[in-house]
Amino acid sequence: MKYMKQIILVCMTLVLAMVGLSQSPVLATEEGQSAASTIDASEATAPGEDTLYQDIQDRGVLRVGTNSTYAPFEFSILKDGKNQVVGLDIFLAQKIADDLGVDLQVVDMEFSNLLTSLDTGQIDIVLAGMTSTEERAKSVDFSDIYQVSGQSFVIQESKVSEITDDSYFSNGGKISIGEGTTQQLLVGEYYPNSEVQVMRTTTDSISALDSGLVDGVLLDEDVAGAYAAENPNLTVIEANLPIQDPGKAAAMPKDQPTLQAAVNESITDAQEQGLIDQWLEESYQIIEDNRQSTWAAYAPYFVNGLKTTLVISATAIFFGLIIGAALALMRLSENKLVDLIAQAYIEVVRGTPLMIQVLFVYLGFAGMFGWSTMTSGLVAVSLNSGAYIAEIIRGGISSVDKGQAEAARSLGLGYWTTMRKVIFPQSLRSIWPSLGNEFVSLIKESSIVSTIGVAELTFQTRNVSTITFNGIIPLIISMAIYFMLTFTLTKLLNVYERRMNEKYAQ
Questions:
Q1: Beta partners for 234?
Q2: What is the pLDDT of residues 342-377, one digit of tens each?
Q3: Sheet strands side by side (includes 69-70)
Q4: What is the residue range of 61's domain?
Q5: Enclosing H/E stretch for 63
Q6: Any domain includes 422
Q7: Is residue 52 a contact partner of residue 124, using CB atoms and an 8 Å limit?
Q8: Could you tell me if 378 and 420 are in contact, meaning their C-beta atoms sit under 8 angstroms apart?
Q9: Could you say which of 66, 124, 271, 283 would form a disulfide bridge with 128 (CB–CB 3.0 to 4.6 Å)?
Q10: pTM listed for this prediction
Q11: Which helix (H) or strand (E) covers residue 197, if one does?
Q12: Strand pairing partners for 105?
């Protein structure tokens, strides 16, 4: 805290350096490009061109998109201190990559974002327990089916006398399903009289069931059985749907027959060797091996997530201050165009959800500039924070008596020297409470980047929930960590605020 004021003033000084030393407050900026390149937009395949297979060969990497909250098909564990996505689909992905003679890169993200990422060229194929449906086949091509399973409801054991079969849901009842899943389509078609609760992940749906908020969760029978086996309070009933399960398949961009044939060949080989069933059993065994006897044993997951959260928050605060100071100066500029540009930026950012901004940066610009998910998240959160900090700084500068600037000018100080030496230091006192509140909010808002697969605290919480098949206790632990983090920061900020007030009172 001793150097907090200096850090903020340094950030503001950097802004002054960027805008130059002229007397007119006109802003000039320069953009750089991230050196961390994991995705190259130039490799995105043009419609109708069968080039993706060769692109993968040239790149030497197969990028497979998945969502690691669907054990036993895909889930995340900590190995040597790092996140590693494992499961049946990952075993299959590794075989496909080996058969292609390339390395495997697993891109973990929200299930609902997978097909969009495939369409924008962020990934090459999707392996995420995805069912081949006619609706999805309109936008992507599917491989041959590699696994078929029916549908089942997970219900509370205490309700087996009340919910004897799936007709209970045909006549009403509350069903929870995952966002963008096949189950969402099935419920709408075959259980139209039920009350539907759409959740972001399967674990969230199970938590809602555990809490009594819903009557059942519709899942693939393998996944449903896994949850019921690990929770004595849950059981499974069959969903007697009048359709045959189309089965799970790998999704890929349309009109890529060479890649499709190669993937099909790997799937056929895996089926002939009996590898699919073997991988399914191995996935269950990995879950068992990574299950710990006490919750304290899962500490490495939460510690790793906390580290990433702190990195995101600190980086966003630093660049948010720079962006915010620049925008604040633009808003105070006598140049109407400069003021209008800054005002438009601030209104757009503050008027749209942060989650949409994160997805927009990742899906729209990550491929263009070769950004990783972490870099995309940092850019989005920093840009968002900058808009809010801009108005805080602008208000602080406006609150400084104009006579201060006039006195400085009368002493021969230029515009930028006056801002740096006189105005900024005095405005810091008035904006400190609001600035501190923004810092605290950033820590909580950083959880949004988990939607694109950044392994921060919320992401790791879901990993623990997936492995343990328990959604409540990991959430309680995560809430406690967030609270301790924000409470401690708030107290530190208050201490510095009191010292600053005491200094000005002397």
A1: 156
A2: 999 999 999 999 999 999 999 888 878 888 899 999
A3: 69-70, 74-79, 82-86
A4: 41-147+248-290
A5: strand 61-66
A6: yes
A7: yes
A8: no
A9: 66
A10: 0.72
A11: strand 195-199
A12: 63
On whether the CB atoms of residues 386 and 354 are closer than 8 A, the answer is: no
Does 137 share its domain with 221? no
Asked whether residue 351 falls in the same domain as residue 489, the answer is yes
**Statement to judge: residues 253 and 221 lie in one domain:** no
Q: 346 in helix, strand or coil?
A: helix
| Residue 473 shares a structural domain with residue 443 | yes
Q: Indicate the number of domains in the chain.
A: 3
- Does 358 share its domain with 212? no
Domain assignment present for residue 390? The answer is yes
Strands 216-220 and 251-252: unpaired
For 206-223, how does the pLDDT look when each residue is reduced to its tens digit (9 = 90+)? 889 988 999 999 999 888
Q: Letter for the amino acid at 240?
A: N
- With CA atoms as reference, report the closest residue to 101 among 54, 145, 66, 146: 54
User: What's the CA gap between 70 and 75, in Å, rounded?
Assistant: 6
> Hey, what are 275's tokens?
């590898």
Residue 351 sits in the same domain as residue 446: yes
Tell me the C-alpha distance between 341 and 305, whole Å: 37
Express each pLDDT in 226-256 by its tens digit: 888 778 889 999 998 887 778 899 999 999 9
For residue 344, what are its two tokens?
A: 């438009």
Q: Are both 402 and 344 inside the same structural domain?
A: yes
